[in-house]
Amino acid sequence: MKVKICGITTREVAETAYRAGADMLGFVFADSSRRIEPLEAWNIIAELPADVSAVGVFVNETIAQIHRIAEEAGLDYIQLHGDETPEFCKELALPVIKAFTIKEENDAKKLLEYECDFYLVDSPGSHYRGGSGKPFDWRLLQEQKLPREKMILAGGLNQDNVNEAIRLARPAAVDVSSGVETDGKKDQQKIISFIQKVKQSKQGRE
């Protein structure tokens, strides 16, 4: 089971995450309280181990701007949280993670229209796209024929509920941001505990 820690803004938090076993780190280049500039991201990404992927998060950005930031920051993946079309995704030069908001059962079927490296299923946002800190009903995914090997589960996950979420949704990876924060800042102990919970769980070891 892969783990992605999103909303990275400091080298210290990044190091804590990858030392604890994170497989992907997310850097937000869209409107967010966790937004980071490309050069700041590059300073962190340049120090990452080769087996840890850097993911850039974008919302309704132009292809040219995405490519520019991806090159400046040294990204491995592009994560799209807006209204991007399947055609838009195909034009990107890097592997794509497309996010889908899940409110009802039919929402998950939209991902079948896209050809992406990963599909991120998330809760509806509050101020921003995603990042609400509230889980959606994971049972909405249970009976559906979805590419689980490409699914990243996000939305309101934390160390207390992640094992149940994995059991119900059966994703390939989990993604957390606010669930490992205290007072809006990344909490290094929560990051460690979250990753340990995932990696030590029965589903995480399969």
Supply the helix-strand structural class. alpha/beta
Percent strand: 15-25%
The radius of gyration is 16 Å
> Per the principal axes of the C-alpha atoms, what is the gross shape?
globular
Strand order of the largest sheet: 1-2-3-4-5-6-7-8
What is the straight-line distance between the termini? 7 Å
Oligomeric category: single chain
Count of extended strands: 10
Give the proportion of residues in helices: 25-40%
What would CATH call the class?
Answer: Alpha Beta
The pLDDT mean sits at 91
The CATH superfamily title: Aldolase class I
Low-confidence stretches: 126-130
Largest sheet: 8 strands, parallel, barrel
Catalytic activity: N-(5-phospho-beta-D-ribosyl)anthranilate = 1-(2-carboxyphenylamino)-1-deoxy-D-ribulose 5-phosphate
Keywords: Amino-acid biosynthesis, Aromatic amino acid biosynthesis, Isomerase, Tryptophan biosynthesis
Domain N-(5'phosphoribosyl) anthranilate isomerase (PRAI): 3-197
Pfam families: PRAI
Architecture overview:
The chain is α/β, with parallel strands linked by helices. It has one domain: TIM Barrel (Alpha-Beta Barrel), CATH 3.20.20. The chain is built from 7 helices and 10 strands. The strands form 2 sheets. It has an 8-stranded parallel β-barrel with strand order 1-2-3-4-5-6-7-8, surrounded by 4 helices. It has a two-stranded antiparallel sheet with strand order 9-10.
